[in-house]
Amino acid sequence: YGATGTVEAMFTQLLTTAAALLLLGGHVHADTITSAYLVDGNTSGVSWGTVMVGVKTHNSSVFGMVCDDYMNVTTADFLCKAAGFEYGLYEWSNNRISQHNISKEAWNELGGRFALDNLKCPPGVKTLEDCLYVTPGTHNCRYDEGVVLKCMGVKLLKRDGVPGSRGTVLFHGLINGSRSSGLVGAGGVDNKTAEALCNMAGYKYQVGYDFTKNIYRDYKLNCDTIQRWNVSVIAEDLNCLPNSTVVTKCSASAASEDSDIDNALWLSCSNDGDQFWELTNITLAQNTPGNHNDGDLRTGGSRGTVLVTMRNTYTGEERRGLTPYISSPYTPSSICDMNGRTSKYLYYRRTGQIHDYKKITCGFVVANEMKFALSQLDCPGYYQKLSGCSFTVADEGYSPGNDNALWISC
Fold this sequence. Notes:
- By secondary structure, the chain is of the alpha+beta class.
- Helices cover 17% and strands 32% of the residues.
- It contains seven helices and 23 strands.
């Protein structure tokens, strides 16, 4: 009787354990990921894209996307490693947010299914059976909820490893065919490569780059963090193709044993393109009504609509346009001084209040598609240099009305 009772107790315990596993989302039979790769658009095998996985269960297999329900950093890191990226996750999002997602057409061609939903993995897991999830192939998700992974990339880190728009460059990708994560030597890096690295870090513009040793401590990775993370210089002579957005478009030499962390690359990036604009000229302009060719515009006189010319030092683009009326007399007086037209009888108005023969006419504005170049211009009074003026570049579509452009008589 004792032996029989022991067997019954063990059997009951096994049933209880199986039931608990099912309730927690676990599995009595070990499911495995048989394949995993990323797709961007219609291109597979990339380092940034929607993750597609194949899962084999004890009695079937399923292939498809992973739903973003319950997704977190440790789970996304597990998926990157499942896709063959040794150093795991750089960042994750979903098809709705990211532009690096699988197209609906490509997804449908691959079956249009989700392989996993409610996937949640603790840190450091190596197999699917260590994660929680619902039965493979079961889901309540839409295309937009497919998980997008970035398994290689660039981060700019300052002080305690906080990411930002400027900092020591942490490169997370391939060096001579081997996946590596670490710092990059600044020697040999050119403007093209620095710009590409900014793009990979998620920024449109490169502001500047330098050796880390030349940067103030608050804006670079500190020594304590470097030691704690066991980070080292992994590459030198980094070279990236123009307009690259993924690190697979870069090549480099493996760092030598005596590579110095103080010579690591530091980078400053930005998404603010307005900072690259500079004023090159402010003049007063008018044209004869009915004459709308560019050569018909008369500039440099003592009165007229304020015409601003500016240049983007980053792209080389030049732009010419209007600036809105301002109630303060300081900016108009400064513009007169810059044009050599100092006058005790300063007169400034909205262009709409002025006779057509003394301003840039509506016909000229329309014929030449002239727009507002600035939404704000502020020059200190009686200051004769453009560098003394502050301004705000007009957003696309900005227009307070052509009649509200600034007009001045010196």
